[in-house]
Amino acid sequence: MRKKHFVLTDQSGFTLIESIFSIVVLTILMSLLPLMYNSLSAIDRSISLEEDFEWNIFLIQLRDELGTVDSCRFGTERVYLIKNTISIKYERFQWDIRRQVGDKGHEVVLQNVRKFDVKDEAHMLVINVEFINGTKEEARFIMPAREEGEIFSTKEAPFYPLH
To answer: Are 41 and 55 members of one domain?
Structure first.
């Protein structure tokens, strides 16, 4: 006599409901991956430590010099300071902002700068910088009142940065 073997008995595996549930969970997780990637990329771009560190050092140095200079004037892409008859210039050169003291040599103070804009808004020195990676920074320094394009004396009022 022959024994009958049932193929479907005593097998362990996924049922149809378990398979559908697994596919739904996998689909939800896969749909969240682009969102998580975009969020992490945005955070990474905004926490550019090197440029942020460099920007803060630039602001501290400029603030300290503005507080001790005798006179100041500026153009679209430069700041010209006079301290004890020594000229100090901050100007854009190619992709850098450089500082020159006494018309001797240059020191790079900001790198990878796409746009450097210096202007006067309501008795404030406003500096806008856009880096090559698209990060934009702005700093404001309170200045004494003066005429357009006129050199002024900082001994009348101190500079205070608003950052």
So the answer is: no
Q: Provide the CB-side half-sphere exposure for 76 (13 A, CA).
A: 2
Q: pLDDT 10s per residue in the chain (163 long)?
A: 676 666 566 567 778 888 899 999 999 999 999 999 988 888 776 665 666 788 889 999 988 888 888 888 888 888 888 888 889 999 999 999 999 998 888 999 998 999 999 988 877 889 999 988 888 899 998 875 554 554 444 443 344 444 4
Same domain, 84 and 96: yes
Question: What is this structure's pTM?
Answer: 0.59
Q: 88: number of CA atoms within 13 Å, CB side?
A: 16
Tally the domains of the chain. Answer: 2
Contact present, 73 and 80 (Cβ < 8 Å) = yes
Give the range of the structural domain holding residue 16, as residue numbers without chain letter.
Answer: 12-47
Residue 129 and residue 114: Cα distance in Å, rounded?
Answer: 8
| CA nearest neighbour of 77 among 54, 56, 97, 62 | 97
Same domain? 39 vs 107: no
Domain membership of residue 5 (yes or no) is no
